[in-house]
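forwarding from the other thread:

> can someone predict this with S-adenosylmethionine?

sure thing
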Amino acid sequence: MEERASRWAQVAGKDSGERYAARFAALADSGADVHGEARFCDGLLRPGSRVLDAGCGTGRVAIRLAELGHTCTGVDVDASMLAQARRRAPELAWLEADLAEVAALGLDPDFDMVVAAGNVIPLLAAGTEPAVVAALASLLAPGGLLVAGFGLDPAHLPLDEAPLGLPDYDAWCAAAGLAPVSRHATWDGHAYTGGGYAVSVHRVG
Ligand SMILES: C[S@@+](CC[C@H](N)C(=O)[O-])C[C@H]1O[C@@H](n2cnc3c(N)ncnc32)[C@H](O)[C@@H]1O
């Protein structure tokens, strides 16, 4: 496949991992809740589930889910982000790969959940999104869930414009054999009634 830079690579610097980790450490120190995504995911999972954190970055979601008793694997293409994840939780599996090529990793297709938190979907390389959604869906066990949270306008994205809307995402999921389960406005689980951010849950159909 022709190499295309992710939108993340266009907005992140070489020290993206250090800066991202420092930003979340500061938030945690200030008393902010930095575990909303993991709590939301945990609420959908049986104890001891298998979770793939797709675009895991510094690993903050996978690490928290592992603390809650799940078996977590993180995949990310940004070595600087993964270095932070490996430093914080060397016992977990961190794989450096482009999600467009995730099938080549040979992972067992028995994940109970694939989570793509923190704008991963809009930060993929342009044009690769349907293939990535299909590749992620192919790693799910029967009944497994794909959970993705992302911004839908510039106020909720590190981009000048939103590269996709919810109809695009739903169409990619449908093409990958995923049926919609629920949609939320926040990781607190409030129902989505419109707005610039959505958390979408789809299930293997
Ligand atoms: C804003 S960060 C979010 C990190 C993490 N999910 C979180 O919520 O803290 C977006 C991540 O998506 C990753 N990403 C973007 N495109 C990717 C791709 N094609 N393959 C793997 N990771 C990708 C970036 O490397 C980056 O770590």
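The pocket of S-adenosylmethionine is lined by residues 6, 8, 55-57, 60-61, 76-78, 81, 98-100, 117-120, 123-125 (CB under 6 Å). thats all i got for now
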